[in-house]
Design goal:
The protein is mainly beta. The chain is 10% helix and 54% strand. The longest helix has 21 residues.
Length: 277
Amino acid sequence: MKKALTCVLIAIISLLACREKQNVIPFVVTQPNDSSAVNDTAHSEDSSYVILGMTDYSIKSLESKSIPLEVMLTGKIQDRITLSVTGLPEHTSAEFDPSSGYTGFTTFLKINTVFATPGVYPIVIKGTSDKMLTKSYKINLSVETVPCDSILVYRTNNFRTRSVWNQYILYGSTHMDVDYKNPEIFYFSSLLVGMDGGNPIITYEDISYYVNCDSLTISIPSTTVLGTNQRTGQTNTFIVEGSGTINPDERKVIINYSSKDEQGIPYRYEMYADITL
């Protein structure tokens, strides 16, 4: 009888132990004051450090910004951490400088936008250790609207102009400008309108252009100007018109235009400039 009771007790204790194992709930330890950290289900969460400086940021649609971040050790053993960022809007790039280091280092997140679409974008900044442990932070990046026509005046270098037939650079002093008395008027100051042998014919009259910020296109309506031969000083009338595009990925503005002299002889040119940040 005593032996039977002992067996029953052992069976009951075993059953209770199994039930306790089934009710165990796994948990993740988070660091204090690290509220923007999010769990990464693909890897184990790294609790040996925190990244300070994590907050929401705003940037203009054509801008370069450098954000300081500190990777601070909270554990006992240093490890090399490699940083990455995902979720950026289109026409936006980002890099860390430096991109990795041993816990206890400062890095700068450099974000460049080139006509990025305005809005609020959740981006994720992730740190990955050499042991493949990760820590992720989710913050919001707000892209603010900036009129693209006015910003181009300050963000483009001088245009280089070449013939569409031989691709030789013929002129390099055209630039975008704005009428400061009427900031809605944009124009090119000085433009190549023809060639006389090897002598450029330049107009110094203002040639208006219009920018469509939605389609990222530029148009030059038909305009009559006076061109001056740079060697002889002789002047002739020319009719100029053209169109172009803004390429955010290559950070370039490319414009194709034509000019006709008084005899109707056409000249065709392409001019391009880099967009600077």
